[in-house]
Design a protein that fits this description.
Blueprint (H helix, E strand, L loop, with lengths): L10 H23 L8 H21 L13 H25 L4 H39 L1 H4 L5
Helix pairs in contact: 1-3, 1-4, 3-4
């Protein structure tokens, strides 16, 4: 008869699962219900972007230096995204700690998987938004081709 040490309770694994589930739920709330910070209307934003593009092009043609970039203020959305990243990282670390302690693999792997899934959903949403934003900017520059003359020809 062999004496096997008892399997430790899956404290870290289940904690990682809970934290990873919270990170995933918060990610989905941010993607579908956000942004939570007040946003200017799209027309105002696009108009300001068009005016900035025209001023920047005029400075480039005149040989003047571009102004230094101003830091953007942090909003509630920025803090929520940082919170998701921290929760997801904590879920992965707790799941790995559960694997190191030889806890039940299902609980530990679930914590790791949920943490990585939360980060993956957030990165996928940001990539889609970046592609859509690039298409909008390209369409805006194309619409301004007559106003800018032969600069973008």
């Amino acid at each position: 008869m062999t004496d096997l040490p008892p399997t430790p309770r899956a404290v870290f694994g289940w904690s990682g699962f809970a934290v990873g589930a919270a990170a995933l739920i918060l990610t989905l709330v941010i993607v579908w219900a956000g942004p939570f910070a007040p946003q200017p209307p799209a027309g105002v934003t696009l108009g300001e972007m068009a005016a900035d593009i025209m001023r920047s092009a005029a400075r480039s043609v005149a040989g003047q230096p571009q102004p230094a970039p101003a830091p953007l203020p942090r909003t509630l959305d920025d803090h929520l995204k940082t919170g998701v990243a921290v929760l997801a990282g904590l879920a992965v670390v707790l799941g790995m700690a559960g694997l190191v302690r030889n806890e039940r693999r299902a609980a530990a792997a679930s914590g790791i998987a949920l943490g990585l899934l939360a980060v993956g959903v957030q990165l996928f949403a940001m990539a889609v938004m970046a592609i859509v934003g690039a298409l909008v900017v390209a369409a805006l520059v194309y619409a301004l081709k007559d106003a800018l003359g032969d600069l973008f020809a």
